[in-house]
Amino acid sequence: MRKSIFPAAGLTAAALFIAIAPAAEAGQHGRTVRVQGSHGGGYVHDRHVSRQPGAVSVSRGTQTNAGYGVASQRSASWGGGVYSGGASRTLNNGASTNRATSIVNNGDGSYSYSASRTGYNGDTRSVSGVASRP
């Protein structure tokens, strides 16, 4: 009997900590890292984050001294029963991929959703519909 009390107490403490933990601070921050290796090898990587109430966006990029690189962007916003999010990635050669997701609370216990994804080859797949809560 005693063994089951401690896990329950731990879960309760974790739930209490999550409930009273302060929300992430709004604002922007980022950093850039430059690495230079021997024989001319190296890269530059940067990451920037912007947070506002109900929205967040993150951009990242990596560029090597050899000319290879990738840039990516992710963002999400929420509020008023609506969630919208997306991401994209672009390579130095121009190839890109992206995805987008949207969820709307219809107010009657159901949710409308839509999602699409476009691959590097240009093919797009989409799905949408309405789901009800059990």
UniProtKB/TrEMBL annotation:
The keyword Signal applies. Keywords: Signal. Residues 59-72 have a biased composition (Polar residues). Residues 31-72, 88-134 are annotated as: Disordered. Residues 1-26 form the signal peptide. This is Uncharacterized protein. The lineage of its organism: Bacteria, Pseudomonadati, Pseudomonadota, Alphaproteobacteria, Caulobacterales.
